[in-house]
Amino acid sequence: MIRCEKFADKKILLIDKDAKKNNDRTWCFWEQEDGFFDKIVFKKWDTISFLSDAYVADMEISPYQYKMIRGIDFYQYCFQEIKRHPTIEFIQADIGDWSYQEKSLSIDLNDIEYHFTNTILFNSIYREENADKKIIKLLQHFKGWIIETKEPAFNPEKATMMDFRISQDNGTSFVYVLPFDEKTALVEYTLFTKQLLQPDEYDEQLELYIKMFLHIEEYKVIEKEFGVIPMTNEKLSFERNGWNIGTAGGQTKGSSGYTFQFIQKQSQQIVDCLVNQNPLSEIPATPKRFRFYDNTLLEILYHNKLPGKEIFTAFFKKNKPQQVLRFLDNESSIKDELKIISSLPTWPFLKAAIKQL
Ligand SMILES: Cc1cc2nc3c(=O)[nH]c(=O)nc-3n(C[C@H](O)[C@H](O)[C@H](O)COP(=O)(O)OP(=O)(O)OC[C@H]3O[C@@H](n4cnc5c(N)ncnc54)[C@H](O)[C@@H]3O)c2cc1C
To answer: What is the distance between the terminal CA atoms of the chain, rounded to a whole angstrom?
Structure first.
């Protein structure tokens, strides 16, 4: 991490109700070069697989690599850095209400009110507030098991990004498999639906998948993770009662739930603005055309106009994986986008697009 002298006299207070001592999530993303967090990347893959009844492919994604970071490594790395900077303080506290005006912040911490002046507030607490009927919200929910097998069972050289061969009775569902070595992998059952399942149902599907598709009979579950990511067309803007970052600031891609790299890109823009003393309001919002694509896809998934399995199969079958990854990153060219759009079933997408317009 590079120390910027421009911040030497500035104090940073980081507040979180959680001490971040648990491996509560695993982040996957792709990038072309070594990124800011490369030191803590747990595993990288050059090949990703896509599987559905209609299409199966192992895809080399060079110049991209598919990368995985464990939550616990990320938290430890960040706290080690924080320790080296005496101007950064972390306090563990539950934040209640807060108000922020003219750089003055009043905030409830563990039910005690505090006041700070001359502050810049960054908020990453996501709160569901908007009751607008036009807002649609799907949940991306998933349960993952890290399993260990007795015999070699995985190819650690490739990650399964989406396996749609499983039952779609619960809605758009797929499994991804991230092998760490020949005997250890994270197997994650994921759904894009309106409601969560009962806890047992995730476990049943994971058991079934490991048996039916991975053909593994003997294994030990060594870690579990569960998560929910909101997928919504709600415009969660950066500037809203302070500066909203992460999922709270609209950095979760509405149609895929991917967030990690969008947060990194926006964090860099924030730092650049602060260092160069430019107004934060200059940071551009997500380009409108990407919000339009996301909202169209979300509309289709939400109203079940087409099964997600068919849409993602068309994406990967008819386009180069690099094109799809660029598109999912909001970094595609108009030419890429036309190619991708033309690979999708015309009518349902046209109707959903008109509704968005
Ligand atoms: C299990 C899981 C796996 C994910 N995997 C991926 C992935 O592979 N790739 C990807 O791109 N995205 C992934 N995501 C989505 C996204 O990257 C993560 O949710 C990411 O952590 C979002 O960052 P954030 O800062 O917006 O929110 P968070 O990381 O959730 O941070 C918000 C913080 O606010 C704190 N907080 C909340 N309420 C209060 C309060 N009242 N007082 C004090 N503190 C509070 C929380 O403790 C938390 O630390 C995943 C999400 C989950 C849940």
So the answer is: 44
User: 30, 60 in Cβ contact below 8 A?
Assistant: no
- 144: CB partners within 8 A, 6+ apart: 26, 186, 187, 188, 189, 224, 225, 226
In whole angstroms, what is the distance from residue 22 CA to residue 324 CA? 33
With tokens 């790299």, the residue in question is 261
Q: Rounded mean pLDDT of 69-89?
A: 96
Residue in the block written with tokens 């505090």? 114
Question: Distance between CA 188 and CA 209 in Å, rounded?
Answer: 10
18 CB near ligand 1 (under 6 Å): yes
Give the tens place of pLDDT for each residue, 183-210.
Answer: 999 999 999 999 999 999 999 999 999 9
Residue 2's pLDDT is 55
Between 8 and 156, the higher pLDDT residue: 156
DSSP, res 166: S
Q: Give the number of the atom of ligand 1 that is nearest the alpha carbon of residue 24.
A: 1
Q: Is the predicted pLDDT of residue 129 greater than 80, yes or no?
A: no
pTM above 0.70, yes or no: yes
Minimum-distance ligand 1 atom for the alpha carbon of 96: 41
5-131+240-282 has CATH 3.30.160 classification = no
* High-pLDDT (> 90) share of the chain, %: 88
Category of 47 on φ-ψ map: left (φ > 0), alpha (ψ -120 to 50) or beta: beta
